[in-house]
Amino acid sequence: MILGHGAAVSLYPRLAWYGFRRHATYWAAALAGAFTNTVFGVLRAYVLIALWQARPGLGGYDVAGAVTFTFLTQAFIGPMQLFGGGLDLPQRIRTGDVALDLVRPASLQLWCLSEDLGRAAYLFVVRGGPPTLVGALLFGIVAPHAPAAFLLSVALGVVVSFGWRYIVALATCWVMDDRGLGVLSMVLTTFFSGLMLPLAIFPGWFGELARALPWSAMAQVPADVYLGTADPARALAFQALWAAVLLALGALMTGAARRKVVIQGG
Amino acid sequence: MIRTYALLAWTWTRAAAQYPLSFALMTAGGLVVGGLDIAVIWVIFANTDALAGFGLTEVMFLYGASQLAFALADMLFGNVDRISQHIGAGTLDVMLIRPVSPFVQVAADRFTPHRIGRSIQAGAVLAVGLTRLDVPLGRVWMVPVMVVSGIVIFTALFTLGGALQFLLTAAPEVANAFTYGGATLTQYPLSVYDTRVVRGLTFVLPLAFVNWQPGLYVLGRPDPLGLPSWTGLLSPAAALTLAAVAALAWRAGIRRYRSTGS
């Protein structure tokens, strides 16, 4: 079956909508996740407050900025899937169902991206709202510096996050055990996204390297756009660049996977 | 009971040993994930000499003690937090009709020996912290006592979290806030938190007895709340009290459990 032009235009928005609705079914799990993210946000906030009391103005943030940074990055855990996962792909590769996905007359990568954007939109509200709200009530957080640029930066962050997770998921085609890859990806993402500590306070060349890597586009950069500690235009360009690089790499790997998969008839 | 637990755990260990490469990789993964915590502490102390009045070596000691206790509790009994999966899949029914305590069965089910990697990392940090601290011999005996008390406290937390899942089968992640949250909370000196929080952690949910109060005793430092220095010696008593509460909650959960019958 070849999709007509009109169908192709409406296919991806529809997939995004299905991704949204699918995750909306598991609202209790999402709220439980939001609860846990909030509790950890409170713990992290106290540690950062202690650090900023010892070193006021560290990394260009004041105490209120550091607290806001903490709760924003906790709010990103769900939509950006900072602990990894969120895609069905590794399981579909293991079971062989991916063969079906590859023969569909639509790009596997765009298919997954559309579903993932729907998922992220739902989790941005349900898992992002509570930590931000509780942070504002308990400690007080600052208002967004540039709300429109912030939302755009979050969207680009989700695309970068997807680009990375898609590559990790597709690597299951070549690596038999995907759990080790998952752990590696989680370690890189949680540390270099700014989730554990703001990358702005990483010392010396290590800090410069950390701020240039793609993971910073998933939490550090959107938080900086929110706080006004980064130039929005430059920040968005940085994210767009990494999104393009990772998506291109993913597209190359999809082509390679298509040639590698052998469909057993019968 | 202990024999059955050991037998089940050994069975799962032998199963894990069938895939030696996977086992080695997962153990190394635990070391790396633990190493991340150390990286965070390193970045913090690259920016400051003292965090809430405590230096790097003291933080390493407090971190190592609580994380070693947590890692061992997690390896031995952490699988209790998967009780909602057993309830959902109906496998809890099978466990209830066997002549072995369901707690032992749930705790030993899918026993994951590679979690030892996390204990090795935490133990190493504790050892480095202790050797650099110069603790007098008269107080160093408290270190093993506090680690064992910590294991009991964290096991009680896992059990309470498991008991909670009898009520919240659809949202087991809530329990993580207490178990993993407790582990994260005790990574740093409790003086970073608000004094009201520390009071709650001393008198209500006794997480202060994992490494804070006994740690202050070992370090010979006064308590910021003004409690006497022997408070740290009460760790075993606090641990046993929490364990008793957890045992009651677990029994209430099991009693309340109604199988779907399918």
TrEMBL record, chain A:
Coiled coil: none annotated. It comes from the Bacteria. Keywords: Membrane, Transmembrane, Transmembrane helix. The chain crosses the membrane at residues 24-51, 63-84, 120-142, 148-168, 180-206, 236-257. The keyword Acyltransferase does not apply. This is ABC transporter permease. It comes from Microbispora catharanthi.
